[in-house]
């Protein structure tokens, strides 16, 4: 279950041990972030245990209905994809460092994926991708502006330098799953922008429900798990990760002269420290293979391959559960 919700949780610190104890008692693993502004994270467990967690979050006395209407996505995996359970307490669930951005108080207009194309094709709408540069590099919507940020906190500077509420009367924004856009839209409204729109459910929901023949999204969508990227229908994409710098790699990146599998890529070619660590890790994996054993990194790769196969088989069932929810 992937979940996020901007909600007033001034008691987040008190909720942390309660939520951690509940998840551990139900053998649920993953990461949940609690902050005074809400909750965000992804966890895994059996169907029954995840249902129990949903009841605790949405109908239980601890959160007292404050998480009602949360954005929730369900998916399946052949094996437990997480090693442990972590409930982290942070100042923000999405770090922007702009107190004036409060989605619980004001937020832009949600646009359903089915209505997104009509909006972004209008000449009076400025379309902005709120994700970071390495994510945009894999794929984005046609004619979208790229802020070229490395962290979300830099988005404020991009707005100040490139957008003008007196000129840009209508701004549409999007991100991976919708959470960054909620905060970005709240920030723009606080800066005097009149009409701000954002894609409900993000790129992932768009790729899930909009037919490929009608899609305005070009490329693949970066995701923060071993799939690395997905395409239309949420089918696993072609991108891989550089094991040295964790930058997503396209087919062209992997064909580059500076690419060495498991060691370096064109994006970290000048970082000798990362190369040394990656080289040692690759050496240990190779030695484990020669001994007929398994290295932790090897296990992760093999587990990822099994999970990918299972995810493809389970994709339709997951979509049906999301619709039912």
UniProtKB/TrEMBL annotation:
Residues 311-325 have a biased composition (Basic and acidic residues). Residues 121-215 form the Rhodanese domain. GO terms for biological process: tRNA modification. PROSITE patterns: RHODANESE_3. Keywords: Oxidoreductase, tRNA processing. Its EC number is 1.14.-.-. It holds the Pfam family UPF0176_N. One of its GO terms (molecular function) is oxidoreductase activity, acting on paired donors, with incorporation or reduction of molecular oxygen. It catalyses: uridine(34) in tRNA + AH2 + O2 = 5-hydroxyuridine(34) in tRNA + A + H2O. Residues 289-325 are annotated as: Disordered. HAMAP family: TrhO. Belongs to the TrhO family. Catalyzes oxygen-dependent 5-hydroxyuridine (ho5U) modification at position 34 in tRNAs. This is tRNA uridine(34) hydroxylase. It comes from Devosia epidermidihirudinis.
